[in-house]
UniProtKB/TrEMBL annotation, chains A, B, C, D:
Catalyzes the NADPH-dependent reduction of N-acetyl-5-glutamyl phosphate to yield N-acetyl-L-glutamate 5-semialdehyde. Pathway: Amino-acid biosynthesis; L-arginine biosynthesis; N(2)-acetyl-L-ornithine from L-glutamate: step 3/4. Pfam families: Semialdhyde_dh (PF01118), Semialdhyde_dhC_1 (PF22698). The gene is argC. The active site is at residue 143. Gene3D superfamilies: Dihydrodipicolinate Reductase, domain 2, NAD(P)-binding Rossmann-like Domain. SMART domains: Semialdhyde_dh. It comes from Pontibacter aquaedesilientis. Its EC number is 1.2.1.38. The keyword RNA-binding does not apply. GO terms for molecular function: N-acetyl-gamma-glutamyl-phosphate reductase activity. Keywords: Amino-acid biosynthesis, Arginine biosynthesis, Cytoplasm, NADP, Oxidoreductase. Its main location: cytoplasm. This is N-acetyl-gamma-glutamyl-phosphate reductase. Belongs to the NAGSA dehydrogenase family. Type 1 subfamily.
């Protein structure tokens, strides 16, 4: 077995932090050095994540002083940049940030560089695995951003995004985190549906940057209707656009593009969301209706859309097999 | 109080039949003469609809021989035409059919005429209330068809459907009826999402016919992604298209169009599905993003999308106040 | 039509207040004079209860100065007593309080008298309808208290509660109100179960007082396991005890006891919770297993367990038919 | 790594078979030789279990002729006995049956012996791990039976079950398998609760046999109210009885009893069901209220209540570490 990677988590009391904990505790190459949380400092991690009772005796610590090989930032949007501005991190420590603070985005020409000169590589392995393998600092993509990009990357690679793309997507409640709000109240959300950030979801910025990276010219617009659905985990995305490809050509293109990527799978059957829940997989499904190519894309927002992809990136950065610690039993029901 | 309308239901054991029963039992102008069901004949109606225990001692009968003023057909697609072919219905009896058998549809020039020469008026009051008031035979619209049309009618009326319309919609499980299937199994459907009949939903045929009726020329295509959601009641629809209208102009147009229609309401706030659950209402909400006009449309598929609209049509046909028996307490949670 | 009853609601922005609004807006004998809410003062009621959009133009007011015939207090536990201490209420105004502040309870010999000398009658019509009809001030029972009492009253009336009673009950999320908490978060509650206040639920105090009222001697203990369930509305209760009654005798006893009570119904079939959701009904079901008599009791916690029962009490206090405004279409699904 | 165990599954298209597949595909010491299913023969396993797309290319076979080291029977109640009567199984093949066909039960003096003379050991490791380690044939316990026994074993071991035990338990929909029925229909089950087999659940027979094994004399009765809940996975059980133990004594007793058992954990906090969902764990929680000792017991019905426990038994039978292949990431949400 490879020597152990010492890992630390900043902001371990939230949803993404909890998922990361669950993954790292079972990862064969990782030794969890600390889990920091300001709100839970001093308490055992199972106080915040009761399913971890019996799995670990680790307690949350108040600050992140312990030297580690890799630091995961689950501190939330804005908080990651703040943490790095206020804390000294040794130059040899790798950093994987799950917030949007350092993701590339539309209107920039490349990776985001922070105040200390660290250059963050956008961590979508299916887009740029080689760059991730060489990276020291990773900006982990957003959940909707991951699902939508995986639906479109093969087309962009061939410069085939030449007409408007129409996207609708439904997200579970964990996508909004554990903060309490009217739309996270069970009485409201159960058996309910609503939209939010219609046409203006913030993930469009990183999506457009990635697509531009693959297809620098001739792109059309992306229109996106995000829905809140009455379930906890997962994102279900449907995208469509005019395409000259036949169904067979499209399937061949997608299978070829994702051939070497172990987590992204092309289904020949109409899929349902629970196929990917509690896994790091993305399932894609293609249909052709008239001139419209329709792409379905499913991920678990907390895994492939957050903590699972962070571990996938860690595996790549440290030269491990990409799937290490990520072969997960699906919940299925 | 007005003289009582004698009503009969054919196919009363299913979801739509049950909802109709619930409504008619509470309707001040209706006397329920019989409820027919082949599968439940002889059993009390609460055997199939246990919430009606204590509400009525009525039992299902095997055939529909009793003379009535109005006959509701809830027999299912194909079964309604079959029933009318095999049974004599007195000419003075009004018929309201909830199946798709007699709905008008794309490719025809008007109302559907059955084998006996009955001409069925398409029963969407917000489209053609006057025709319904004069009608003897009504074809009640489909649920998705109702929601999507109510989102688009004001634009068609002004011949403003001039670019492609992109629609996504999520339906609850009652939309698929009470038949048992893999996708109606609780273990499968809870916390799950899937699509079905992508771009090919059968309701598009009646929708297109209605829009053509209002706007005979220059229409563009409708693209429709229907989703199955993990909830029982309701349909949540989002439609968008390029539009030269400002938000204020669009709101004024919709408020004007629906001004005299008591069940269709324009919201100034972003709505959620449970606002309409267990009511006969349609809530519409308008947004403008760049050149896109986005219309949200919510209905309860079993009420405004089926049994409630059937009662609304009955009220119109018999000259009653349109809202009689349809002022319902929303479930809200 | 009878002359209108002018009604006011104090604390109208919460769940019980909202349900009361929905009921009173449709009640044929009620004119809603005001709805007070400190947090929502000045806003239209549909800002807090969006399903009421299009139903009323009423706005929340900041204080409850308008003279009314009946005042409903939905202010919450402790807040009702505080409101009455701080506000002058004309002596001719009837008061119906939905909090626990004035409910009778174990250890007292009768009705609760407040600081101003008002004597509150415990408002369970199936227990003491005559006293309610004569009352000026009503303390509306708790939700679990209503369901459990309705399961046991006929036995207590015959002094047949002679062995320990074992009760389990599952409540939906609306039972805990709209305040945000870890256990009301959708991500936590969906697909989840937990217990709370095991053996110590506060409603046991009023239950025991009522049972003692009917059966002053020889009672045994009540053991109660309350569960939180992953649904929004309703309470499902199972109670059992040793009983010498045969099933037929027990059924006869219950049918006789509830014969004149329109909302409490004895089912001959194994019932499910949704039979009562969005209605003011209580469905009871009896089984005998060996020497154990098992009683199932179902109510909608917000209606028969709160706002519906409050309207039922109002009807009784004002001499109206008990069911006026309470014949509600069940949601059923 | 230890030499591989060749495993076969009979009846692999159902829920338990699917879970077993998910576990065995990830088990480091198992090579899956075949998965049999009459209904799905010839199809890839992901046709029945779509989450396994990309995980295996295995297809269902029609019969179970291939020689294996261990045969898992997931054929259903009655079908297991039938399979063994109709098929030759080599004597050196271990058999783990998930049906109730060979479980011991009240009224018998020991293990169940089948028609071919095979003696099946009741496979509850926390009851009799040594016997399982020596066994050739295992009868895997029922789901409710597992949860209830784990709540009571430490008391029985000390002959402390001396007063009636009152049990209520709520099960998710997967407990009833994948067959379609009125109570498995999503429209019915969502937001609903009901009871079934009140006081007569068939698992009581095996529970009573186990308790008698530990405490041969002086037992009292078990009263059990099983509920159907609106969720897919898990069982939540509450049991209580009169007990002379203090809370501390009870906690010490349970911690001592389960000290060497890795999957059964005593919580000091009030737990919720999702702590164990998608794990092989049982979480127990103790409370003392007056003279009542209250025990909460939570398991995932498909894992510790079925397929997970079957793998645990396989590990014991083959001399592997008990937790091999069973360290699972909880779903948590």
């Amino acid at each position: 077995m490879a020597a152990s990677i010492k890992a630390g988590i900043v902001g371990g009391a939230g949803y993404a932090g909890g998922e990361l904990l669950r993954l790292l505790l079972l990862h064969p190459n990782v030794e969890l050095a600390f889990v920091q949380s300001r709100s839970q400092a001093g308490k055992p991690v199972y106080a915040a994540h009761p399913d971890l009772l019996g799995e670990t005796e680790l307690a949350f610590c108040a600050d992140a002083a312990i030297p580690v090989d890799v630091l995961f930032l689950c501190a939330g949007h804005g908080e990651a940049a703040k943490f790095l501005a206020e804390n000294e991190v040794p130059t040899e420590t790798k950093i994987i940030d799950l917030s949007q603070d350092f993701r590339w985005h539309e209107g920039t020409s490349g990776d985001t560089v922070d105040a200390s000169g660290r250059s963050f590589v956008y961590g979508l392995p299916e887009l740029q695995r080689e760059q991730i393998q060489q990276a020291q600092y990773i900006a982990n993509p957003g959940c909707f951003a991951t699902g939508i990009q995986l639906a479109l990357l093969p087309l962009a690679k061939q410069s085939l995004l030449t007409s408007d793309v129409h996207v609708s997507g439904i997200t579970g409640s964990t996508g909004a985190g554990q903060s309490l709000s009217a739309t996270s109240h069970f009485s409201w959300r159960t058996e309910n549906v609503s939209t939010y950030k219609v046409m203006e979801h913030q993930h469009l910025r990183e999506i457009k940057r990635s697509l531009l990276y693959l297809q620098p010219e001739g792109q059309s617009d992306i229109h996106f209707i995000p829905y809140r659905g009455p379930f906890a985990r997962g994102i279900f995305i449907t995208a469509y656009l005019q395409s000259g490809l036949s169904l067979e050509e499209a399937q061949a293109l997608y299978k070829s593009y994702y051939g070497g990527h172990p987590f992204t799978i092309i289904s020949d059957q109409n899929p349902d969301l629970k196929q990917v829940v509690n896994t790091n997989k993305c399932v894609l499904y293609l249909q052709k209706h008239g001139s419209m190519l329709v792409i379905t894309s499913l991920i678990d927002n907390l895994l492939k859309g957050a903590a699972g992809q962070a571990v996938q990136n860690m595996n790549l950065v440290f030269g491990l097999e990409e799937t290490t610690g990520l072969k997960l039993k699906a919940t299925a029901f």
